[in-house]
């Protein structure tokens, strides 16, 4: 199956979960219109206190439907799109295998070429924060992989972040085209 957008979500407040909606508008250099994390500078509250003028590398949050399904299988209650605070829930793409600088182009079915496409550049990984644990006990630990000896985190699975390069409206069902970064794959780090 070709990669697609499964669901889109936003929240105008700094609540943890975001509400699924029919469509969202991505604004170049800013993020999701009407979302509390939109802005040219950092909007994440804890990071804002330490460096309020830092560029916002977390304008759009992506997580895969397949990962949410895995979490749901391991839980008594389902984990639905938007529950973990993501703006775009993807399908049939492993967002964790993307590299820094890779670009995701969103295209409506039936549209050829670059007309009407929206582009987001991947900036890094989301660090699974304690809010995930407050949302559902035991979930934060399911969003990481730890080294057997010492317990050091070796993988984060709570999605990836990006910045809007070319804005426009996105909705469920749009195709996702991956454009690898020039110069080869650069592994993702937490942003």
Automatic annotation (TrEMBL):
It holds the Pfam family MOSC. Residues 19-179 form the MOSC domain. This is (Perigord truffle) hypothetical protein. GO terms for molecular function: catalytic activity; molybdenum ion binding; pyridoxal phosphate binding.
């Amino acid at each position: 199956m070709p990669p697609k957008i499964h669901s889109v979500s936003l929240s105008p407040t700094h609540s943890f979960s975001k509400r699924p909606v029919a469509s969202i508008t991505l604004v170049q250099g800013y993020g999701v219109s009407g979302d509390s994390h939109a802005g040219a500078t950092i909007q994440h509250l804890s990071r804002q206190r330490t460096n309020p003028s830092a560029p916002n590398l977390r304008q759009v949050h992506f997580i895969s439907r397949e990962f949410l399904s895995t979490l749901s299988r391991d839980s008594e209650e389902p984990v639905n799109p938007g529950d973990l605070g993501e703006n775009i829930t993807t399908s049939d793409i492993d967002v964790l295998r993307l590299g820094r600088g890779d670009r995701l182009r969103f295209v409506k079915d039936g549209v050829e070429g670059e007309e009407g496409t929206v582009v987001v550049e991947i900036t890094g990984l989301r660090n699974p924060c304690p809010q995930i644990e407050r949302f559902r006990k035991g979930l934060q630990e399911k969003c990481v992989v730890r080294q057997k000896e010492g317990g050091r985190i070796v993988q984060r699975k709570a999605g990836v972040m990006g910045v809007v390069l070319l804005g426009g409206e996105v909705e469920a069902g749009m195709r996702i085209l991956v454009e690898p970064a020039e110069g080869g794959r650069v592994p993702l780090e937490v942003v």
